[in-house]
Amino acid sequence: MFALIDFVSRVVGDIGRFVDIFLNDLILGAGDPLSALLIVVGQVLIIASVSVLGYAAVGALLQEIGVTLPSLGGRGRSE
User: What pLDDT is recorded for position 78?
Assistant: First the structure.
């Protein structure tokens, strides 16, 4: 139990350090605008894919209780 609490407190405490390393070493410290652009594009792609997967998962769960969300691709059930 103590190992889990120590692990969680260490991760939460290191979030500020991670942000500092990310900003100072990767984006600002590199001096290369291309690396900053690649990081931003990568984050946008990850956020978009997680959002679409989340929307599909929530839609599947809601469909089990009878709530239908609009289809993103227009290839939903034809009624």
Answer: 56
- Reduced to 3 states (helix: H, G, I; strand: E, B; else coil), residue 15 is helix
How much is the pTM?
Answer: 0.55
d(CA 48, CA 53): 9
Say which residue the tokens 């692990």 belong to. 7
Asked if residue 38 and residue 63 are part of one domain, the reply reads yes
Let me know whether 1 and 23 are in one domain: yes
Q: What is the pLDDT of residues 32-45, one digit of tens each?
A: 778 778 878 998 99
Domain assignment of residue 62, given as a range: 33-69
- Please list the ranges in the chain whose pLDDT falls under 70: 1, 27, 29-31, 72-79
Is residue 37 located within the same domain as residue 59? yes
